[in-house]
Amino acid sequence: MKWYVTTRQRLGLALAAATAVSVLLFFVGALRNRSMDFDYLIWNLFLAWVPLGLVLWLRKVLRTNLWSSWPALCITAAFVGFLPNTFYMITDVIHLQEVRRVDMIFDVIMFSSFIIQAFILGLISTYLFHLELRKRFSVVKSWTWLGVFILAASFAIYIGRDLRWNTWDILLNPASILFEVSDRLMAPADHPELFSTTLGFFVLIMSVYVVFWYGVYAARQPQNSK
Question: What percent of the chain has pLDDT over 70?
Fold first, then answer.
């Protein structure tokens, strides 16, 4: 009996291999510098895997349940809460010059490996979520809803980087987060970074995702199609 590997399984193996490469680069850097600086990159990359697992679970649930059902709504809420972790890793580059290291270029390569891997996980997770939206809404409405979720993710990145809250604090400290966010929304002129960070990430993520979406679409079309 022959064992066949599906395209999705190959993608999963490729993502796992890329993650292993990122972790390997980290430990090579740790040995060269005799330091575990930047070990949080491994945890952040793990968090970037969570949305992919959640959206795969959501797609399975939606086969037998309406999106308005409690299981689907809870998984969707968790997915929206964890999705920003995939794109958030871009901001980790600010830590590159915090400590003296043996080889800055190698560190740039290592950081890029983690960041690109996390961003790809975010794009794939968003794509699978978008497919579910397309099954239930028109083209315009599905893109509109997707834009809302990406805008929310961009705002969450601001909350994480500038206000230093994380995903767990949504459950552990919701009142404190609400207080800080409302304080800034009520005095936007005093916090211009709120809009620059949120809109900046929204434009970045949305523009890259649009290319990703149509790139996948083009790759799936027959070569002789117009």
Answer: 90
Residue 144 neighbours by CB under 8 Å, 6+ apart: none
DSSP secondary structure letter of residue 69: S
Taking a C-beta distance cutoff of 8 angstroms, is the pair 87, 201 a contact?
yes
User: How far apart are alpha carbons 131 and 134 in whole angstroms?
Assistant: 5
Phi, psi at residue 35, to the nearest 5°? -155, 150
Whether 59 is in a domain gets the answer yes
Residue 207 binned pLDDT confidence (cut-offs 50, 70, 90): very high
CA 146 – CA 123 distance, rounded (Å): 12
- Domains: count for the chain: 1
Stated pTM of the model: 0.89
What domain range is 169 assigned to?
7-220
Taking the C-alpha atoms of residue 26 and residue 112, their distance in angstroms, rounded to an integer, is 11
Q: Please report whether residue 226 resides in a domain.
A: no
Provide φ and ψ at 4, rounded to 5°.
Answer: -105, 140
* Structural domain contains residue 153: yes
Cβ-based neighbour number of residue 213 at 10 Å: 17
**Do 159 and 194 touch, CB atoms closer than 8 A?**
no
